[in-house]
């Protein structure tokens, strides 16, 4: 006689009622239109940064935090466009901690802590190389 076991999975929200407030900054000094926009976003503790981005896009009346993203299985979301500025062969959106420290995780896996500032910076793929100087000058 053989017996078959069953398993039960129970999820418990350890952070029930706890809120995390993050200052989210989207900046582009690389090409026109340049901008440096900031917004404070509050969500329940334990949420990945992509959820803070979604809330910012939903709540900002000036629509300065709208974005498009592509989801890659096993990797997460890649931000293609932010505030109508598109990533391309010359530049991309990079998630930073102040002043300019890249996070080791992307928007799908980075879990912000209360009071943190996170910056999405439009970043040159090849700084100082001149490969994309026409695009950087808004041409």
Automatic annotation (TrEMBL):
Query: This protein's superkingdom?
Result: Eukaryota
The name under which this protein is listed is DUF4430 domain-containing protein
């Amino acid at each position: 006689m053989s017996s078959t076991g069953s398993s039960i999975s129970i999820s418990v929200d350890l952070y029930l009622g706890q809120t995390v407030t993050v200052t989210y900054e989207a900046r582009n000094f690389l090409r026109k239109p340049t901008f440096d926009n900031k917004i404070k976003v509050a969500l329940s503790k334990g949420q990945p940064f992509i959820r803070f981005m979604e809330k910012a896009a939903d709540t900002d009346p000036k629509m300065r935090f709208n974005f498009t993203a592509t989801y890659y299985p096993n990797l997460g979301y890649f931000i293609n466009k932010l505030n109508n500025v598109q990533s391309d062969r010359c530049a991309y959106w990079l998630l930073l901690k102040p002043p300019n420290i890249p996070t080791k995780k992307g928007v799908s896996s980075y879990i912000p802590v209360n009071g943190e500032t996170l910056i999405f910076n439009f970043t040159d793929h090849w700084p100082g190389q001149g490969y994309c100087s026409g695009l950087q000058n808004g041409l």
